[in-house]
């Protein structure tokens, strides 16, 4: 089986600076051939692009996380837009709304989310959305700003069934993380993933966060090598073949991020 970690932060020097090469080797050995490194700031977006340029099968996105909205401005959006023209950049984000921790006021988050959506649409890039406890606000904004032609993924989906259906209706994918494997926290998500259409699913680690079970019993840090555990759990819940689901999700991710067959490392390498 081959896997595409559709969302990770392996450019994080604090988490991966000491053993990045070994981490990438473990991922390849686990069948994880491709990874999307999600930018969360100008500095981290630059690091994501540089890392993707140096490694086959790695791709990058650029964006400003909602936690950092107060530090955003028009100049940063312009620089990110220029950076996004790098051929290894295949998406915009991680951007969105987070009304849980409230690192930035709601109106500030909404203002810079709108600016990033406009930039992504102008560049014809899919968008990686972060959403937490926005109480339907993100879905409402997307319906207003991009009622048609929107592509992207709601990463680490944590909403309700109505929101999930709304995002799918807009043409977005749903990103599933290791939360699916967590006994209590993943209970509601496990009930919803049965209803996801095959072509609407992506899987991800969000590494170094959200380590799946049982790996989190032994490892505090998540890494791309663990994404097959998410797939295995998803296949069991949906009562489908792991091999067939893995290939479907891999193709979903390649299609969304416009990854061509000759950009995918050989499974035997």
From TrEMBL:
Gene3D superfamilies for the chain: Metal-dependent hydrolases
UniProt keywords, alphabetically: Hydrolase, Metal-binding
Residue sites binding a divalent metal cation 1 per the record: 7, 9, 94, 206
GO molecular function: DNA nuclease activity; hydrolase activity, acting on ester bonds; metal ion binding
Listed transmembrane segments: none
GO cellular component: cytosol
Similarity comment text for this entry: Belongs to the metallo-dependent hydrolases superfamily. TatD-type hydrolase family.
Protein name, per record: TatD family deoxyribonuclease
Organism, as annotated: Desulfobotulus mexicanus
């Amino acid at each position: 089986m081959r896997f595409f970690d559709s969302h990770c932060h392996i450019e994080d020097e604090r988490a991966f600076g000491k053993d990045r090469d070994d981490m990438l080797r473990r991922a390849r050995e686990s069948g994880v051939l491709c990874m999307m490194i999600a930018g969360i700031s100008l500095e981290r977006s630059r690091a994501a692009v540089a890392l993707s340029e140096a490694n086959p099968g790695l791709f990058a996105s650029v964006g400003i996380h909602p936690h950092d909205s107060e530090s955003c401005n028009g100049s940063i959006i312009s620089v990110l837009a220029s950076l996004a023209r790098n051929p290894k950049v295949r998406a915009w984000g991680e951007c969105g709304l987070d009304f849980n921790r409230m690192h930035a006021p709601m109106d500030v988050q909404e203002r810079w989310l709108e600016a990033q959506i406009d930039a992504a649409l102008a560049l014809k890039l899919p968008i990686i959305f972060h959403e937490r406890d926005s109480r339907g606000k993100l879905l409402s904004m997307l319906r207003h700003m991009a009622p048609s032609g929107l592509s992207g993924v709601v990463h680490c989906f944590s909403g309700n069934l109505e929101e999930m259906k709304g995002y799918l209706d807009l043409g977005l994918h749903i990103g599933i993380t290791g939360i699916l494997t967590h006994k209590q926290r993943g209970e509601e998500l496990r009930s919803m993933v049965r209803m996801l259409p095959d072509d609407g699913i992506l899987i991800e680690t969000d590494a170094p966060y959200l380590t799946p079970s049982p790996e989190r019993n032994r490892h505090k840090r998540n890494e791309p090598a663990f994404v097959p555990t998410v797939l295995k759990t998803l296949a069991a819940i949906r009562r489908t073949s792991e091999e067939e689901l893995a290939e479907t999700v891999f193709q979903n991710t390649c299609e969304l991020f416009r990854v061509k067959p000759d950009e995918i490392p050989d499974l035997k390498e």
